[in-house]
Write a structure and sequence with these properties.
Belongs to the histone deacetylase family. HD type 1 subfamily. The protein is α/β, with parallel strands linked by helices. The protein is built from 10 helices and 8 strands.
Length: about 300
């Protein structure tokens, strides 16, 4: 049976700039959308211009102080926020740039709306390539991520779904999502990532398994440099098969960071676009409602082709 796919795209989201020389380039979203149009993929999906998330939406996970700061800070007034910039880890990797809060509002709103549509059975698969910013924490920014749209989307899904499975194939460990749901069995987190040699964020070894009610509902698959399609597939498919069989999720959230591709500016894996896509296809084959999100990816032309 053909699946109904909802695709969320905000025409303005690609116009934000983290600043000169910064590896995160929202422009990749406009390139991705251009391919969606020119390949005619939009004909197979329902295309939505997404809702913009409010401060209230963001505070479902983040602290009010932190979200209030994101809303108020700008390149023109940041001198007056020195203490807050340090406290909230905003500055180097996570710079203050024009329209910062609006950018967060746009990518978070799309993930939230995707979750709502899955809850209401409007679609079987919801896609938001602007989302997947998995490093953001309750009280701080981290690793190019300010607002954790994934956690906010999962909290929405939990209103209707007893068990949500989160799968992360970005090269970096999905630390922000893991931390948010570390103590609960309502969300199982599974992350495949590079681990070791001080690789960011430095977390995600095999012994991080969850705690309290969430003990053994957190699974990390730490990997070394250079993993290729074949090796990745031989790990990914049996692990995910076992997890789905055991956990019986009623909804899946898949973070598709494209920095696990070969030739990524910040990555060191060797996946092809086909190998990356096969992971997504495999998750889709379970016929469980699916929220598909973006994430990392720093060689822009490859990110757009991948997504």
């Amino acid at each position: 049976m053909a699946k109904t796919v909802a695709y969320f795209y905000d025409p303005d989201v690609g116009n934000f700039h983290y600043g000169a020389g910064h590896p995160m380039k929202p422009h990749r979203l406009a390139l991705t959308h251009s391919l969606v149009l020119h390949y005619g993929l939009y004909k197979k999906m329902i295309v939505f211009k997404p809702y913009q998330a409010s401060q209230h939406d963001m505070c479902r996970f983040h602290s009010e102080d932190y979200i209030d700061f994101l809303q108020r800070v700008s390149p023109n007034n940041m001198q007056g926020f020195t203490k807050s910039l340090n406290a909230f880890n905003v500055g180097d990797d996570c710079p203050v740039f024009p329209g910062l809060f609006e950018f967060c509002s746009r990518y978070t709103g799309a993930s939230l709306q995707g979750a709502t549509q899955l809850n209401n059975k409007i679609c079987d698969i919801a896609i938001n390539w602007a989302g997947g910013l998995h490093h953001a924490k309750k009280f701080e920014a981290s690793g190019f991520c300010y607002v954790n749209d994934i956690v906010i989307g999962i909290l929405e899904l939990l209103k209707y779904h007893p068990r949500v499975l989160y799968i992360d194939i970005d090269i970096h460990h999905g630390d922000g999502v893991q931390e948010a749901f570390y103590l609960t069995d309502r969300v199982m987190t599974v992350s495949f990532h590079k681990y070791g040699n001080y690789f960011f964020p430095g977390t995600g070894d095999m012994y991080e398994v969850g705690a309290e009610s969430g003990r053994y509902y957190c699974l990390n698959v730490p990997l070394r440099d250079g993993i290729d399609d074949q090796s990745y597939k031989h790990l990914f498919q049996p692990v995910i098969n076992q997890v789905v069989d055991y956990y019986q999720p009623t909804c899946i959230v898949l973070q598709c960071g494209a920095d696990s591709l070969g030739c990524d500016r910040l990555g060191c894996f060797n996946l092809s676009i086909r190998g990356h896509g096969e992971c997504v296809e495999y998750v889709k084959s379970f016929n469980i409602p699916l929220l598909v999100l973006g994430g990392g990816g720093y060689t822009v032309r490859n990110v757009a082709r991948c997504w």
